[in-house]
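Researcher: For the record, we're logging two predictions in this thread. I'll number them. Prediction 1 follows.
Model: Prediction 1, sequence and structure:
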Amino acid sequence: MPQLLPDGGAATWRQVSGPPSPASAREFGVRSLGFAHVKGTRHEARPRAVVDAHGPVGDREFCFVDVERQQVLKTVQNPRLIRMTTSLVDDTLTITLPDGRSASGRPVGSGERLTCYYWKRPVDLELTDGQHSALASEFLGKPVRLARALRGDVVYGAGLSIVTTASMRELADRSGHHELLDEAARFRATLVLDTDEPFIEETWRGRDVTVNVPDVGALRVRIGSPIARCAILDLDPITGERGSNLLKTLAVSRPRNEAGEPYFGVNAEVIETSAAPDT
């Protein structure tokens, strides 16, 4: 089985073993690395993120919950979340609204714990006290609490998700949504890779590959299952407003799961990491 390994110090992949293949022998640049510190808030580029065996550190470390309903807030049901930006520096979480108002501080546990069901699985959350919850409650128009989750507990799939530019271009052509490459955050993928062949990423399933991300280091990852998509694709990645036909286009042009959700992108798991060399 072929492997893809870093080509020198560039952010590229190249095949170094196995039979030659015109598609897989090409180099694929890493366009971006991104995630959200609070589940459902804006997906942002994090070029200097630390990545370990569980994925990027700080990726969806927090979430907002409706305590009365025991629900983790999801973007598709609460699109205003997308308008909230976040940063996490030295354990200080800052949440900023589009009008410039913000809440900043270390999320301190209140001693209260809450079990919520996230995609039919129970997750144990630690509720926090502080101004983050008050700001979000006012903005969302309902009482919510900021909670801290264990690594991966409020992540839908694997620790990493991958989409490629060729697949996005193909979808852009089919849907007429030609600005899609500039709106890659719609897919909320950890890694966006530059490719020439649409959906080549699906042929990598089960392979261990290594990607060298500038300022992060080399990540050896195992490519997993394709990702089933929902209506979040039709939300503008900056405003949260609905208005595209991307999901409908995918539904008529791509394989779907038993629930009728079309596939786009792939899951991946981190197998090994090595830090970027000092410059």
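Researcher: Logged. Prediction 2.
Model: Prediction 2, sequence and structure:
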Amino acid sequence: MRPFTARDGRPLTVVHVQGRHPPTRGPVLVVHGAGVRAELFRPPLPRTFVDALIDAGWDVWLLNWRASIDLDPMPWTLDQAAAHDHPAAVEHVLAATGADRLKAVVHCQGSTSFVMAAVAGLLPQVDTVVSNAVSLHPVVPAVSRFKISKVAPVVGRVLPHISPAWGDRPEGFAARCVAGFVRATHRECRNGVCRMVSFTYGSGRPALWSHANLDEPTHDWIRGEFAEVPMTFFAQMDACVRAGHLVATGEVEGLPPSFTDRAPRTDARFALFAGEDNRCFLAES
């Protein structure tokens, strides 16, 4: 891991993944979602998404932004990531590689925050963005809308964060209560973290993947790949869902209050992916 700092001084890291041969193409920054980490893109499979990028000649950099479980947990918002983390990460990778432009593959809340930064004009060096699951317009199932608007505020009164890791290791009485509720209502598998992921992030059993697409080593590997997500994030996303598009909290200067009422300040090309089976909190229409 290579350490660097966000624009507000927050410690971040980036993982430079190198293949057997030097890259023949430019840098690609890969950005994870909320409450996971850069290693999310390298499950225990013979060939991963990262391997495919390397085999195609790309110079691959995996970002651990402030939502990463490899960093010290803290309350955060999409605004902070957009204004402080992603611009600093782009500058760090360009300085390390000597390139003047890069491409990005961004996932889930890494996608929302990265797209916020791009359309606000904070990422002029990024010429291509592949956005997965959600970007500017969150569209959620009714169950998810109920959970984020009604359940999350109740949880937020007693807990500063929620963690899918509580499926294996609940911390404190309130966490044990949440984990017990999930055990009673989610019986789709015996993996406690998998069941907590469905409660935390969406609707369905399971919410974020199909068990038919997971072999047992990968299903077990999930146990170590999810941890704290602050309730500050869910509060902001509740406002975004109600508005029908991403909105800023107003705590960070340089970001517009809305990201859809003005022309994007970027020349980057965007590719948007959100499959019809996407049942997480945030599915792009």
